């Protein structure tokens, strides 16, 4: 399944006016449904919420540039190893991301939008997981300087 960059951008524009409320909802959903991951995060979530919001915006803004997106995701994946994140956490994170986007898109949310975001998240999680595995084994990605 592939994602539709135009549909991703249009649906992100629907939730963008809500800003950090989206990431606050995301983390509340994540921690409520997966309490075991709470310990991976600081008690003060505002900075983390802002970083996630910035990363989402950057991802959406660069969807047409595969090289930039890949570099961003590999960097994120490598950094997340240091936080104790594991590839096994990605399904829970994806479910919470979709829940947050759907919540703030409201009635505009469609099956097609969900499929596209799910496909995009598949690319995100696969790319980050690959980088996490490499970083955990001390493998540097010399092609992207990470």
UniProtKB/TrEMBL annotation:
InterPro entries: Globin (IPR000971), Globin-like_sf (IPR009050), Globin/Proto (IPR012292). It comes from the Bacteria. Keywords: Heme, Iron, Metal-binding, Oxygen transport, Transport. It holds the Pfam family Globin. Residues 1-133 form the Globin domain. Belongs to the globin family. This is Globin domain-containing protein. It comes from Streptomyces carpinensis.
